[in-house]
Amino acid sequence: MDVIASAFLDDNGEYKEIECVRVDGATDEGRSHAEVQFIWCERHVNRKTKVTLVTTRCIGDSYLNRVELQNGCLSRGHSNTFIPSTLHGVPYSENGEFDKKLHGKNMSAALDQYISRVDGTPCMKTVIHLARGAENHDFVSRRSKLMVFIKGNKTEKQNLQKEDPTLFKYFSEIWKVRDNHMDKSLPEKYVFMLRCCGKSTFNPTSTVSGSFMICCDQCGQWYHGKCINVTEVEAETIETYVFNSCKEH
Question: Domain PHD-type, which positions (predicted)?
């Protein structure tokens, strides 16, 4: 959203190369969960960040976040509000079958009613504005397949690969970046960090499968050119390249 977009931009209006995000310790945001790690890794790849760092204070400290105060204000705003869940009718047919489409229509209508009644609730010398969440976003439509890729058994994964090979390949490439970029020396329950590793990776927004890399002649480690501010043209003129940290030793 435009309201929070500036938090992810630097002084030049460009996306930050290092993103530090602090979340609470709830299960929906837990850094150790495979689905959460996949989503953050996907952002890490798409934003081309050098480092993506997701941390928490400690498990159980959600009440210290300002969002909990906001939730308290919101609860006052919707107190005594009753919105039926069957505004467009009961989502069951005459023979008792569940009508998923009608159920979705009911939920959408109820959400519109909630927003119209609660939007503008006072909170901390300002007001809370509400907006509809994603319904047809890729995160929603592909989630069931992502869960098969992450948690499914061998047969389920093979079926997914056969039915949707393109999506399966994409999941695999993102997960490979996660395996290569994740700092596993950190306590996973509290810190999830992704950083450039120097290994070849893929670019989902480009037809080029890899990116320019240069090898340190002292330690033998490979680095992405963008991460060390060296272009392919500049590298052609460098007779011997030594990474900064190696020069200090």
Answer: 207-245
